[in-house]
Amino acid sequence: MIGPYRQLFAIRRASTFVLAGFVARLAHVTTTLGIVFLVSASTGSYSAAGWVAAAYAFTYAVVSPFLSRLADRYRQRPVLLGGAVVNTVLRCLFLGAVLLRVPPWGLAGLAVLVGGTMPAVGAMVRARWRNLVLTSGLLNTALSFESVVDDLIMVIGPVAIAAVVQWVGPAGAMGLITVFGAVGQFVLAAQRATEPSVVRTGPHRRATALLAGGLPLLATVFIGVGATESVITIATVAFTAEHRAPLLAGGILAVFGLGSVVAGLWYGTRTWRSSAERRLAASLGIYTIAMLVFLVTNSIPMLFTAAALAGLASAPTFTSGYSVVIGRVPEHLLTEGITILTSATGIGIALGSAVGGKVRRLARLTCRVHVRDLLCRRRSGRTTTDQNGGSIMTT
């Protein structure tokens, strides 16, 4: 199983740009939670912290495709170097503003600037892989590996930032995130040997990757996928809490993540004869079945089953999606096209969080109504004893 991955990392300098990309992406993923810790500790309001974090995440999702278009046009190096400098300065200003007790609206404005200057490092790493392995038959392996990296970052990131906050406090954690982001971008920019070259086209070249065939529909699909994964997380926490087993939520989500990692690694070892579009349709079908299981589940064991099934479909879905983008988007717009898919997923996650919060409140309301109904039945009924010594309820 590890054979294709061994070939992948036998490529000269591959490990270096992958590690640099991992560090920068970890900094980006942990920024949102770091903002929540920092702003809530300063203002005492999780609501304000949530709005500031959302300002960062939403602006990143909207602006990052434009930064990726600049990378396609002028190479990755100037975008990464400029982003590293400007983004680092803005992060430091944001940290200083929090320490100076700037009002939440001011912090949200600075968060918009921070999110709008963060390059889409994951898309740049995938573009480098495409540039290196397109003719070697290892592109599917590379994209599968990157999907696994995304899963690992999503698992490691929250745990790591929570631990760092306990160790050095919220301000120290945000400072460390800033250092990680800058170092990752600078090191990735220094890897010029693996950087894709600029593709020169005629005067009638497409202005944006969104005009590529099928990409708007694909982006819409991945908004739904992102929303679904977000709802899964919130609904799992709500379901286990209402069934008085809150500690099992972590285990269920771990099963989801582990299933995605295993499926992603396996998916990358296969040589597929079917098209990326067909593979995407198949993985989305499995994902839909898993969502139906989530919808009808009425027990913790069924929730574990649904999480495992959804996890097995997650990484192949994203890998196939990026394969479709690479196959359909013109080479001179490739990084932008990959970023659009990433941004669509991020927007979906934000929408799913909003919907999921309402679902959780509805679940709590339903539980209260159920408990109140039981109490009313107990008050209106009387308990008697049957011939076997058991208690029964009569009205």
Question: Which residues form runs of ≥5 with pLDDT under 50?
Answer: 362-395
Query: Would you identify the CATH architecture of the largest domain?
Result: Up-down Bundle
CATH superfamily heading of the largest domain: MFS general substrate transporter like domains
- Binned strand content: under 5%
Q: Compute the number of structural domains.
A: 2
Please explain how this structure is put together:
The chain is mostly helical and 395 residues long. The protein has two domains: 15-198, MFS general substrate transporter like domains (Growth Hormone, Chain: A, Up-down Bundle), CATH 1.20.1250.20; 208-382, Up-down Bundle (Growth Hormone, Chain: A). The protein contains twelve helices and two strands, in the order ααααααααααααββ. It has helices at residues 3-8, 14-43, 46-74, 76-99, 104-116, 121-133, 139-190, 215-242, 248-269, 276-296, 300-328, 334-380, and strands at residues 382-385, 391-394. Strands 1-2 form a two-stranded antiparallel ribbon. Strand 1 (382-385) and strand 2 form a beta hairpin. Residues 362-395 have low confidence and may be disordered.
What labels would you give this structure?
mainly alpha, Growth Hormone, Chain: A, two-stranded antiparallel ribbon, 2% strand, globular, disordered C terminus
